[in-house]
Write a structure and sequence with these properties.
Elements (H helix, E strand, L loop, with lengths): L1 H19 L11 H9 L1 H6 L1 H16 L39 H8 L47 E14 L2 E13 L4 E9 L2 H12 L3 E3 L12 E5 L2 E7 L6 E2 L2 H10 L4 E7 L3 H13 L4 H8 L3 E5 L5 E6 L3 H12 L22 H6 L1
Parallel strand pairs: 7-8
Antiparallel strand pairs: 1-2, 2-3, 3-4, 5-6, 6-8, 9-10
Helix pairs in contact: 1-4
Length: about 375
Amino acid sequence: ACKMSLRIYSGLKLISKCLYSNTKCGHNFSAIGELCDYIRKPSYWVSKRYYVIGEYDKLWQAVSSGKGKRGGKKRTAAKAIDGEFIKFGKANMQFPGLNAPLPIKDRERSEKKSTFPKSDRIKHAKFDASLRGWSGTSWPGRYAGSPETPNKEPIEDFKSIVIEVKKVSVTRGNGKRKRTSAIVVVGNGKGAIGWAIGKASFAASAIRKAKNKAVNYLHYVPVHADKTIYHSIETKVNSTTIKFERKVPGHGRRCQRIIRAICELAGIENIRCKIVGRTTPLSVVKATFQGLALQETHEELAERTGKNVVEFRPERGNIPVVVATPSEASVLRRIEREAKGDNDDISKYFDPFMNSHRPKTINQIRQS
């Protein structure tokens, strides 16, 4: 029907054109009848097929706005299925819970609360958040277990935490060699900590190499009796600067996550740290170890100054308490310095560490 209507439409349009100008069709027609006979011939529609198709496309574009048919599978209605969800038949039957209320016994049973004792209920095991790492299930931040000796015997006093796991590659003559690098920190919670880098084809092998290697490079970090550092200190490695602040008991470890992991393995519980500059894991680990090692204990301060070290503790009403006493040799050295007239030197009054803790130098750490 659509094709027939298009043919009639095309024919009428052609008739109007031919009446207007007989030369349009390339034929001379003396009457409309001759023109209609010519249009009915199949040869005309074969020669003018492009004209019919063009008009059909224009008509379909006008109807569908040029979008064409919608894609996808044709939707067909399901057979022998009524569209209504709930319907009553001729018998007018009632179904409890569907079109009729539930019986009283069933209602009481459904509304009855559970009377099981708490001890019989299923107890779900609590997941330890420290085992999942810093971000999801990735390696950094996870405990890697205790390091092992060459005889595969675990060292139970030490624990290890993964700091970083990354992919590295080395260019050789035969191409690039891809490997995995891992940074692991170990410690016993009593001031002995160490770190190392392990490389292997897989992450698990690199972590195992790193933690077993870190036990051979331990550093001793002085820890105060209050589970904190002895004094505030500032250190710098490359472009990373870390400021350590001593805090009272109960403050917690308020610092960057790498520093928090190192302090946990060292046994420090109360500390505050601030990083200025880059936070590259390797630079942060080096700066943290260097800062904790630069501490000067109360005993070292007493030996250097030749005087008693006193603290004002709030739990004792801010009464001064002697925490360190110098030896006789250090007291004699102080008396000799005062007898020589060193008190006339005013430059010591501009010393920021006068009569207080002075951080050690890197050379002093290397010599010790």
